[in-house]
Amino acid sequence: MSETPPPEIVLGRNNYGKSEVRLFKVKRDTAVHEVWDLNVRVILEGDFDAAHYLGDNSKLLATDTMRNTVYALAKDRLIGSIEGFGLDLVDHFLEAGPTVTVCRVEVTQLRWRRIEVEGQPHDHSFVRERGERKAKVWGDGTGTRRVEAGIDDVYVLKTTNSGWENFYRDRFTTLPDTDDRVLATIVTAKWEYDIIDADFDHLWDGVMARTLETFTDHYSPSVQNTLYRMGRAVLEEFPEIERIWYSFPNVHHIAYDLERFGTDNDGEILHATQDPYGQIEGWVERRP
Amino acid sequence: MSETPPPEIVLGRNNYGKSEVRLFKVKRDTAVHEVWDLNVRVILEGDFDAAHYLGDNSKLLATDTMRNTVYALAKDRLIGSIEGFGLDLVDHFLEAGPTVTVCRVEVTQLRWRRIEVEGQPHDHSFVRERGERKAKVWGDGTGTRRVEAGIDDVYVLKTTNSGWENFYRDRFTTLPDTDDRVLATIVTAKWEYDIIDADFDHLWDGVMARTLETFTDHYSPSVQNTLYRMGRAVLEEFPEIERIWYSFPNVHHIAYDLERFGTDNDGEILHATQDPYGQIEGWVERRP
Amino acid sequence: MSETPPPEIVLGRNNYGKSEVRLFKVKRDTAVHEVWDLNVRVILEGDFDAAHYLGDNSKLLATDTMRNTVYALAKDRLIGSIEGFGLDLVDHFLEAGPTVTVCRVEVTQLRWRRIEVEGQPHDHSFVRERGERKAKVWGDGTGTRRVEAGIDDVYVLKTTNSGWENFYRDRFTTLPDTDDRVLATIVTAKWEYDIIDADFDHLWDGVMARTLETFTDHYSPSVQNTLYRMGRAVLEEFPEIERIWYSFPNVHHIAYDLERFGTDNDGEILHATQDPYGQIEGWVERRP
Amino acid sequence: MSETPPPEIVLGRNNYGKSEVRLFKVKRDTAVHEVWDLNVRVILEGDFDAAHYLGDNSKLLATDTMRNTVYALAKDRLIGSIEGFGLDLVDHFLEAGPTVTVCRVEVTQLRWRRIEVEGQPHDHSFVRERGERKAKVWGDGTGTRRVEAGIDDVYVLKTTNSGWENFYRDRFTTLPDTDDRVLATIVTAKWEYDIIDADFDHLWDGVMARTLETFTDHYSPSVQNTLYRMGRAVLEEFPEIERIWYSFPNVHHIAYDLERFGTDNDGEILHATQDPYGQIEGWVERRP
């Protein structure tokens, strides 16, 4: 089971941890319950050479232990934002793994809103909303902590006030210009905080709102321009945010050729194609 | 390419058609746009023996033609409910296929709601909602038409007012009784109309509302009892609906054993497991 | 918790059971291990009125008990085909549920083949193959049993010897004829046995082989004709099989227009599109 | 449409391109056809400030043009490995985009093997294999090129000769030691070449073979140790490979408790759980 590693082939950067820890918490001390529905991932980095080279597990925290720990700590520590819970988990695992130097915790929050009954939100019944909330916390043994938040899986679409014109043309270019098209995308965003004790729930709601509103408020000459406008709107409003990244698939809606059948089609009848798609990504940040 | 079919091995019931026709329509004659985002499937039954036995395609409508037709007819016929559009498509294809005797059209509507900006719904910008709306229309050459509507992919959850007690026990039973558990499911529903000119949009909203409200309004002794209550609430309110079927996975949320770590857990910390799950299905209908 | 059902709204056909029971069995009594990797679903029908109307669970077998039972019975009963195991489970559950009248068991077998090391199959190491094997067993209290087997998720493709010509044309038809196209599909098949003690493993392998070979052995004038040929080949070889059904998406591979760039394209460069697709389905059966 | 960017909020690192270009090529100049079934992604980096700040698209190559280009170049350039095709695409796009400084091309190859008929591989009929082949090529304007290859979605499993013992224990540890467990994972690998004109097809097959064989050839005290052994086997055999990375979910197979039912279970009856799972990742590389 053990052997001496050869001098020439070595272990490089590595990590291990537990994924898909599906933690559900109910705050039920009053009649109005609150819920957290989370998918937690724990990742540890450190000196794990003995396990890799020698099959010596004596310094490895089992991933099953990581799972137990996430549930056990949720009882007292999961009381507010997922960013805050992530910070607590990072603190714990940096201590718990005997040779751990870095811990990353990634949390996806599935979002539930209260069912409305006769216009009133219900005390303990919920329906799932689209769009996931993300948080990633990174920490090391020197006390450094980094917090990143994110949005995933939010589909948005506008039926006009978007175009794609005057782009560069070469011999493989066949796409015509348009100053009126459907613009559709799936928002993936992530952003970095410069502090670790912000009001993360309020900030997340604010980034979502600024992102959606900016999507509506201008003629979009390109996904790129809209991406920059969104990032600028977020950074102008929230000084706690250092920089923000968006990734936008351009889900193409192509006018279907109905002239062949004697029918005109002025941007009304479109094919929402699944493949292929443009993909536009970038950071918007404060000038250093 | 052709051959005589042997007498002993014959073609049985069969059908063909086009799936995943991703039709997107914008109503843009005023500043306030409306959208339909549909996934359409067309299925034809009829006498297709010559194609199967002899490779003779002369009586087959190409599935590519079906696609063209869906887009072409959407221009004038997709102006209200997906049930109404499905009825028009069925009428068309029963005529269009030279040997067609039955046509089924299945429509899935992806749901978009307007983005709110400063509390006002936007004219032409939308965000996708969870939960799909379904319609299936069946017709034959004698003029018979059947309309079925449906709901898919609506996650609901209640954190209390649900139990599972006093069930049958045999030697393989280990589950304890509980009078307080999380009840979580994903609503799939379908229901049949007794008329073909109903206000289908209003009815669909009504079934969704009754289903969600009933989920909240009682102590659930079992998924079965809640299923029956939902169906009864729908049928009592909407005489146009003949019968309704629900399918409910029972997405189990299992209390995590924290006593091992000296922590009590009174239904607060749960594991939302992915596998396996109970599945409860049934029709609720009017007594004949 | 209990109430009298109203006279007018009643429970119709219904069932319940357990899905996604992920059973893995190792036969390890010799050095050469064998594995079964199954996804089992159990579905019961019967008189469950009391549960639905009154919240009375006393005649309901818990779905958790069904899960326990599948694992417990696998020890002695899962020794050969999944069809055989399904028959044993059906026998058990018809007895186990106090008011059960019908039991269906659906089994999906994930397929593993031995890793080859220096040309020899390994004793206990496996790699997953594409293509799922299915079995469904249906039984009732009168002793009737029905066994259906199936194939899912087998992708096949031929690059020539397939066409689509001389089909019916109407005003919405734009597709040109072709006598040389790529034919690609994903095989889903199911077939019914007329006996319950066949050599199901041998038969399943045989149906898979006949299906693949028939795919290669003729010019295909249509998916319909190939479907019929496959079914006939299976029924001619295996008298134990009563009838067989195939479902074939027609995964279109469309020549990309390179003439625009001064390049000819004689069926070499194609776009493998994801949407939409034709869908052809049918039974092939013995003449009654 | 244009505006001056504010001095404080700027564009950071960004890129754009085309994803899910589903290119299928048939080499059909002899009776024995060959196929490439690819999913191509093109990503460009460069000076795209004008588009983001000003809505000026004049220096942007349209992503639709990228798609056209991939198909057009496939005619003459896709004649061997996907790594070679990726290098040609990178060369092209570095020239084609007026302000492009970096191009990345990612190719996923879906794998087809010939259908065997009476023991002979068929000329033009294929069935899909599990396991994807990946290539990523990176290039910049200075002539630097980097080539990475990869494996994805290969499920492997061994039923014995694996354990997990003598690991670190803390107060949240409940997992017992075992010296005989099922080890199951899904291989994701990537590796970097130190040359750009290697026999990439031969090398890919070799890495796959070494990975599978190493999986079988030792008692695995941990996923970590097996990961290192695999990497070492690859690097020892192939000097063209600089370093290799594996990512292994630990798909847990848990013995089902049958003692409750009076049945012993010596590692035979297991639950193949879907959630959560351990995840082990790391590079194995040559000592600098």
Automatic annotation (TrEMBL), chains A, B, C, D:
This is Uricase. Pfam families: Uricase (PF01014). O2 binds at T63, N250. Its EC number is 1.7.3.3. The active site is at K18, T63, H252. Keywords: Oxidoreductase, Purine metabolism. InterPro entries: Uricase (IPR002042). The keyword Oxidoreductase applies. It comes from the Bacteria. The keyword GTP-binding does not apply. 5-hydroxyisourate binds at T63, D64, R181, V223, Q224, N250. It is an enzyme of class 1 (oxidoreductase). It comes from uncultured Rubrobacteraceae bacterium. It catalyses: urate + O2 + H2O = 5-hydroxyisourate + H2O2. Belongs to the uricase family. Pathway: Purine metabolism; urate degradation; (S)-allantoin from urate: step 1/3. Catalyzes the oxidation of uric acid to 5-hydroxyisourate, which is further processed to form (S)-allantoin. GO terms for biological process: purine nucleobase metabolic process; urate catabolic process. Urate binds at T63, D64, R181, V223, Q224, N250.
